[in-house]
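Quick illustration, no need to memorize.
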Amino acid sequence: MICHFAYQIKTWKILCRKKLTKDEVAQFRRAVVKDYYFKMYYDELPVWGLIGRVENREETEDTKYYKYFLYKHIHFDIHYNMDCVIEITARMDPHLVLDITEDREVDVEFTYTAKWKGIDILFENRMDKFM
């Protein structure tokens, strides 16, 4: 079976730039606290990842202080056989984050990278790991 890619993924790409309002920052923080994740499909293959993380910064007898971060960068590992995508995974870069601890308006740039690697799995068997 011959497969053709509809899109060319470049090495480092800006997905979008956005000015988040105070309300949007608060919504993202609530989503991070609840461990929300994204799920998307690439060539009918599912890929998912967390949208952010919580860090425990300080702890005293009376209070705990947390920092909330939104991931700004996703790295995709895409495995292919000939012209067909066989597998895709996503990793968030823990160093490229936006601090969303406080309700404040903030500019953010979301980016991604992709690494392509050949693999010996046949197209007909690419969904086996999901069964």
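The CA atoms of residues 56 and 98 lie 16 Å apart.
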